[in-house]
Amino acid sequence: MAFTKEEKKALVEQYEGWLKDSHAVFVMSYSKMNMASIDAVRASAHEIGGEVHVVKNTLMKIATKNAGYPDSENFTESSIVGFAFDDVPGLAKILNKSVKDEDFFAFKGGYLEKELINANQIVTLAELPSRDQVRAQLLALINTPATQLVRTIKEPARGLAAVLKAYSEKPAAQAA
Question: For 52-105, what is each residue's pLDDT tens digit?
């Protein structure tokens, strides 16, 4: 499909906008394109504030250069790109799941805050716990010493209450 100069310029500007707004860019290759699977990945990415697009490699190279990204060999063959605007590990998880589930996706590499990353680093990023899991772990870590402190403070009073209860029940048992 041939594009006019104006259409190419508009695409480059659109790519530059996505690059400027994203915290991470994940580049994947695809073969045996299945639109149903791509649409499912797009829908999942959209739910977490990301986008997934099939891009023109030469125009994307121009856009990355204009946006100040380092040169890479990621934009060869057919490319589909994920842009993480909010939740970087979340999009990495979605794309990694699609790579594992579908045999026509494969990571090429990408960028994290304009730094070049490889496919292994993307997989590592995808395997990190989610933000909610980290928050829960941190809360549990903070909460544990406080819980133990309260238990330690309450223990003497509980022990005293048990002694008083046993003492108050003792005469009643002897009278019976």
Answer: 999 999 999 999 999 999 988 888 888 899 999 988 988 999 999 888 877 678
Task: For residue 92, give both structure tokens.
Answer: 């990495």
Q: Which residue has the tokens 């680093």?
A: 121
Q: Is the pTM of this model over 0.85?
A: no
Residue 90: name the closest of 137, 51, 142, 139 by CA.
51
Query: Which residues touch 8 (CB under 8 Å, ≥6 apart)?
Result: 56, 59
Strand order across the beta sheet in which 24-30 lies: 50-55, 79-84, 24-30, 105-112, 115-118
- Could you tell me where the DSSP H helices lie in the chain? 5-21, 35-47, 57-66, 88-101, 119-126, 131-175
Question: Which residue type, as a one-letter code, is found at position 115?
Answer: E
Collapsed DSSP state (helix, strand, coil) of residue 89: helix
Contact by Cβ (8 Å): 80, 30: yes
Per CATH, the homologous superfamily of domain 5-128 is Ribosomal protein L10, N-terminal RNA-binding domain (3.30.70.1730)
